[in-house]
Design brief:
single chain, globular, 347 residues
Length: 347
């Protein structure tokens, strides 16, 4: 089918000074859909070309208008004060929210089915779009909001199949704890789990963390290029899966888990994450900062051993839930369902 795809971010590595966790999984999902014979028209700006100067070739088509499509697929955007709520053309303005509103108005009036992927859990449970005829919501959570479909962040099958835990366990890992990600709504988890361990464990934190005065002992690297994410995790023994509470309560795991594990960095999961045992072995579930410190010390003693290899193998096995082929099939099923009825109507 012909899919109008709205996202605000990059397909390639993009630029350093911007948040966009989708860089690790958006392009594999798009390529997976193209591989199934769908046609995709990107309906936001081509930021790879205009901001990063990257030409990704003719496989990707951008359209600034309102082309005929069978379904509108949105990576949901929300109001961010001072950025996309300001008048068009004003300093620092991004037009993602305005464009999304225009797309929704146009295609809803045309009775084109709409699929909303609420990747950041910003769509409230009582949002009218959850009750709008012809609109369907997907969430990247083990336990989606009632009425929503599960669509997890995908990781390329080829990367999973090529990962060798023996090779990964043999790499030198001078950093005890590594983390790459932005601060957004993670202060509580960071303060409870990462910051206490950072007092004694060699560590690195990459990403945008503008408010760090509470943790003067933590080494913050600032934002790092996308390609640097793999390097940081490749030199780190472990990481902590830091989630905002709204993610943890629904069992919504970010792409950080497969960015880390594919680099051989063992993920420690706070016990409060719903379904934590789905994402990591029981021995890698932690309950506080002291638990993180002890576990890193134990892992350091195991580094390079068969037990270390087995732990990495168990973590890689648990990534199967994110496998690209599974997520493309899940999205394909949703697309088929929403386009099965005339004019976007559903029974």
């Amino acid at each position: 089918m012909r899919i109008g795809y709205s996202f605000w971010g990059f397909l390639g590595p993009g630029v350093t000074d911007t948040p966009d966790g989708g860089r690790s999984h958006r392009r594999p999902l798009v390529d997976g859909l193209l591989g199934r014979g769908h046609e995709i028209l990107f309906l936001q700006g081509d930021r790879d070309r205009t901001e990063a100067g990257d030409d990704l070739g003719g496989a990707y088509v951008f359209d600034a208008g309102f082309p005929d499509v069978d379904v509108l697929f949105l990576e949901w955007r929300w109001a961010i004060e001072g950025r996309n709520t300001t008048p068009c053309g004003s300093p620092g303005h991004t037009c993602d929210l305005h464009r999304q509103a225009d797309l929704l108005m146009h295609y809803a009036q045309q009775a084109v089915p709409v699929v909303i992927w609420d990747k950041d859990r910003q769509l409230s449970g009582d949002d009218p779009w959850r009750r709008t005829l012809g609109a369907t919501v997907c969430e990247a959570a083990l336990v989606p909001t009632a009425g929503a479909h599960r669509l997890l962040f995908p990781v390329d099958d080829a990367l999973l199949d090529a990962a060798d835990p023996t090779v990964l366990a043999a790499q030198p890992r001078p950093v005890g704890l590594g983390y790459v990600g932005n601060q957004y709504d993670r202060d509580e988890a960071f303060d409870a789990f990462f910051a206490p361990a950072a007092r004694t464990v060699p560590h690195e934190v990459g990403g945008k963390w503008p408010r760090t005065s509470a943790w003067p002992h933590v080494t913050f690297l600032g934002r790092v290029p996308f390609a640097e994410v793999h390097r940081i995790y490749s030199r780190s023994l472990a990481t902590v899966l830091l989630l905002p509470e709204r993610y943890a309560a629904a069992g919504q795991m970010t792409q950080r888990i497969f960015e880390a594990v594919l680099a051989g960095c063992l993920p420690l999961a706070p016990a409060g994450i719903r379904g934590a045992e789905t994402f990591v072995p029981q021995s890698l579930i932690v309950r506080d900062g002291d638990d993180v410190t002890r576990r890193v010390e134990e892992l350091r003693a195991l580094a390079g051993s068969k037990e270390h290899v087995d732990l990495l193998a168990a973590c890689l096995e648990r990534l199967d839930i994110f496998r690209l082929s599974r997520q493309v099939a899940a999205l394909d099923s949703v697309l088929a369902q929403v386009t099965a009825y005339p004019e976007g109507a559903r029974p």
